[in-house]
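Fig. S4 source data, part A: sequence.
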Amino acid sequence: MVKVFGPLVEMARLHNEINKIFESLLEVSPEDSLKAASGWVPSVDILEAPEQLTVSVELPGVDPRRLTLAVGSGQMTIRGEKPRTASVRSARYHCLERGHGAFARTVHLPVPVNTHQARAILKEGLLTVSFPRVSNRRGQPIEIPVTTE
């Protein structure tokens, strides 16, 4: 039996985190990279199932009336604003990690979807957008019957 030491486990964890950062950089649009540099960008999960594609976006504290969602050209863009928490004048922060402010996040939709039947639900700070999948007809050979005159 091989025993794994603490430092090696920590290095493997850091390696995975760095890989996630580089993968996310490949999917970030120039607009998203500007927003990320200036403030807050929500986290996204994309789940592909046989019948649908589901995009989940963490939006704690965001008012659904302040959200806009647009889909086109195989991408979905979410825009909105997360308000800053009220501060108390007689107090001071020792730690302020939660992001706030305007945001925009564009994600690539990896499979063809029916955008006209999409459903978006914001519940308990999680926006879930479900798209029914459609068959990919591009690039697939189509058989054309040959008849005689």
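Fig. S4 source data, part B ends here. Confidence is low (pLDDT under 50) at residues 34-38.
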